[in-house]
Amino acid sequence: DFTNLRTTGFTVGAWVKFDADSSPDPNGDAIVHLGTTDAEDGGVGNYRNFFDLERSSGNIVSFANSHPGGETNLVSTSSVANNQWKYIVASWNPSTQTKKIYLDCLPNAVAGGANFASQVEGPLLIGADRDL
After folding, report:
1. Which among 45, 50, 12 is positioned nearest to 131, based on CA atoms?
2. Which of 11, 60, 105, 132 is the most buried if burial means most Cβ atoms within 10 Å?
3. For domain 5-126, which CATH number applies: 3.30.460.10, 3.90.640.90, 2.60.120.200, 3.40.50.12500?
4. 95: exposed, middle or buried (C-beta count within 10 Å: 0-12, 13-18, 19+)?
5. Percentage above 90 pLDDT, the chain
6. Rounded Cα–Cα distance for residues 118 and 100 (Å)
7. Euclidean distance between the first and final Cα of the chain, in Å?
8. Which residues have C-beta within 8 Å of that of residue 77, sequence separation ≥ 6?
């Protein structure tokens, strides 16, 4: 069984505590990831992600997604402190074409006009992503 998240929308959240001793991966540290990359299929590393919710440089939260025209990325307007628990949520509303990031249940970033890939293969990963 499956549901088409592109048309039904979704919300995904996680409690996170960033470690001050580890520096973020240049490609981002995944919190939640759905999808794969062409590199895994012998390609050159083009992402075919449905979405990534990740920690980016400067402890900014990033909500990225692939679509037929490329990739869109929404980033939080504030950083997340190290060594503190934080509830991070990303949501997609297909009727308004809106992506949102929430930090501790408060809206932090909003973007309209987002598109999502019509079909994605690959696993749903929590706390990890598929390395190139």
Report:
1. 45
2. 60
3. 2.60.120.200
4. exposed
5. 24
6. 20
7. 29
8. 108, 109
Residue 37 structure tokens: 């990359």
- Best CA proximity match to 2, nearest among 96, 129, 124: 124
How many whole angstroms separate alpha carbon 15 and alpha carbon 110? 20
Give the global pTM. Answer: 0.78
| pLDDT tens digits, 21-71 | 665 565 567 888 887 655 544 444 555 667 888 888 888 898 888 766 777
**Do you know the residue count of the chain?**
132
